[in-house]
Design brief:
Elements (H helix, E strand, L loop, with lengths): L77 E2 L2 H4 L4 H7 L3 H9 L17 E2 L5 E5 L4 H6 L5 H13 L8 E5 L13 H18 L3 E5 L1 H8 L5 H4 L4 E3 L2 E6 L2 H6 L4 H20 L3
Parallel strand pairs: 1-6, 3-4, 3-5, 5-7
Antiparallel strand pairs: 2-4, 6-7
Catalytic activity: Hydrolyzes single-stranded DNA or mismatched double-stranded DNA and polynucleotides, releasing free uracil
Pfam families: UDG
InterPro entries: UDG_Type-4/5, Ura-DNA_glyco_family4, Uracil-DNA_glycosylase-like, Uracil-DNA_glycosylase-like_sf
Length: 285
């Protein structure tokens, strides 16, 4: 698979054209409850849609392997969920004790910050609560706020195509969530106090899902998870860890819609995700 497979519909490529991926199903105005996680069970072309203007201590062992993409300087980050869980907070300790359904209910009714006054609904996440791959973005946008599902619209279609390129699909072995569960007004950047209030929810989602790998997209998601202020360019092409869960970082799909020249770098990030998932699956056979 070559980087030009990330080309948009109107860009000429040397590859033979293929049909666009079918549109994602329209989500209902309120996302349905996600079933509780049970004990763990055991490159097509990417078409860019037109844009409208502690894993726990029992985590699987991590086996070092060279990534297909070259690093861009800076160390590999080893972080923990402790700063996200904010264990010194009574509220955070309560969140850390919630099961899946209770956690979803807590997010839906959350009033911990001012975003509850401007949201249409909180966006818990979507997909398989036993997911092998957890995709973490930044915050809901206008369409996500309306539908109650993360990554819909043009950026969501691109994310679906990116996942399909490595043999993954929303709702199957993937769970998609954001750092913030409510939309910031005007799609502005998340504020520190908002991240502080929402981070315990994400930490608990990670603890309950126990994914094999996390793919963090966008600066705020990456810096929140890895607890670093390093730029995205210095963190790409490497394997990082959060509570011994491998973390790969990449560009947010919305960014790629505005910056198609970065499609080759995005493809290398996806190859690293795919390679690591295959290696982790092989260690359990």
């Amino acid at each position: 698979m070559r980087p030009e497979l990330l080309a948009g519909p109107d860009e000429p490529t040397a590859a033979e054209p293929v049909a666009n991926a079918p549109p994602a199903e329209q989500a209902s105005p309120v996302s349905p409850p996600v079933e509780a996680p049970a004990p763990r069970r055991q490159p097509p072309r990417i078409v860019v849609p037109h844009a409208p203007a502690e894993r726990a201590a029992a985590a699987r062992p991590v086996v070092a392997a060279p990534p297909p993409a070259r690093g861009n300087g800076g160390p590999n980050v080893r972080a923990t969920l402790a700063p996200l869980a904010d264990a010194d907070s009574t509220r955070a300790r309560e969140i850390a004790a919630l099961d899946w359904q209770s956690l979803q209910a807590a997010v839906t009714g959350c009033t911990a910050c001012g975003l509850c006054k401007t949201r249409t609904q909180a966006v818990f996440g979507v997909g398989n609560p036993q997911a092998e791959l957890l995709v973490v973005g930044e915050a809901p946008g206008a369409e996500e706020d309306r539908q109650g599902e993360p990554f819909v619209g043009a950026a969501g279609k691109l994310l679906d195509n990116m996942l399909a390129a490595i043999g993954e699909k929303r709702g199957e072995r993937v769970f998609i969530a954001n750092v913030l569960k409510c939309r910031p007004p005007g799609n502005r950047n998340p504020q520190p106090d908002e991240v502080l209030q929402c981070a315990p929810y994400l930490a608990r989602q990670i603890e309950l899902i126990r994914p094999r790998l996390i793919f963090a997209v966008g600066r705020f998601a990456i810096q929140t998870l890895l607890q670093t202020d390093a730029p995205v360019g210095a963190l790409r092409g490497k394997l990082h860890q959060v509570n011994d869960i491998p973390v790969v970082v990449g560009y947010h799909p919305a960014y790629l819609l505005r910056n198609l020249p970065d499609k080759a770098r995005a493809w290398r990030d996806l190859l690293l995700v795919q390679q690591r998932l295959r290696e982790l699956a092989a260690t359990e056979r």
